[in-house]
Design a protein that fits this description.
It contains six helices and no strands. By secondary structure, the chain is mainly alpha-helical. It has a domain at 19-156: Up-down Bundle (Four Helix Bundle (Hemerythrin (Met), subunit A)). Helix 1 (19-39) runs antiparallel to helix 3 (95-115), helix 1 packs parallel to helix 4 (131-153) and helix 2 packs antiparallel against helix 4. It is globular, with a radius of gyration of 16 Å. The protein starts with 18 loop residues before the first helix and ends in a 22-residue tail after the last helix.
């Protein structure tokens, strides 16, 4: 199917870099994902999502699981390990139902970040993280996996460059290359090849503790 050319949510206005601003980055990123998922209502969700080993339905659940896990880390800060819970889909929801799960769980992360006290940190494999870090991580997960979903659902979409620029600077400590922030983020996360034609196969980000 031919899909929507992105960005799909109209989220072209940048937000500030405070914790409240980072919550807005999450909300804008989730809005992009929800728009793509709804555009794929007639597509085959058993298709592989981009270069992942998961299909599109599994990728959507993974994204919702990440949002919930990050919110849990902020609401019950830990020195080691994730809060021991996860989520599942109830039944076999269609595209709209899965989009609502992503919207709801992304909202939980945004709300948790706003409710978290200044200076609070919680465990993550890539270093102790604060609310801005967890929001940046959530935004990376949202737009990168939206890219995966868009490829699997045959939808043409690209992320707003300002969102990519924020997370690229905050978590990857790098500026945009000649192709722009979105292209640089896709290279950094192994979604598209670098200029030498080689894909990044091992990558990580770096939390700031804020």
């Amino acid at each position: 199917m031919a899909g929507t050319v992105g960005p799909v949510s109209g989220s072209s206005v940048e937000v500030d870099a405070t914790v409240g601003g980072w919550s807005g980055v999450v909300e804008a990123s989730v809005g992009e994902c929800v728009g793509v998922m709804r555009a794929g209502s007639g597509a085959d969700w058993s298709s592989t999502a981009g270069r992942l080993d998961w299909d599109c339905r599994e990728t959507a659940l993974h994204l919702a699981s990440d949002f919930t896990a990050y919110a849990g880390q902020l609401m019950a800060p830990r020195q080691r390990g994730y809060v021991p819970f996860d989520i599942i889909f109830a039944g076999e929801p269609g595209a709209d139902g899965m989009a609502e799960v992503v919207r709801a769980t992304g909202g939980l992360l945004s709300a948790a970040a706003r409710a978290t006290g200044k200076g609070v940190q919680s465990w993550h494999p890539y270093g102790m993280a604060g609310p801005a870090d967890f929001c940046a991580m959530g935004a990376v997960e949202a737009i990168v996996h939206t890219h995966d979903l868009a490829r699997g659902l045959n939808i043409e979409w690209y992320a707003p460059d300002w969102i990519a620029a924020r997370v690229l600077q905050h978590l990857f400590r790098q500026e945009a290359g000649p192709g722009g922030s979105w292209h640089s983020l896709l290279v950094a996360t192994g979604r598209v090849p670098a200029d030498d034609g080689i894909y990044t196969t091992t990558w990580r980000w770096y939390n700031t503790g804020t």
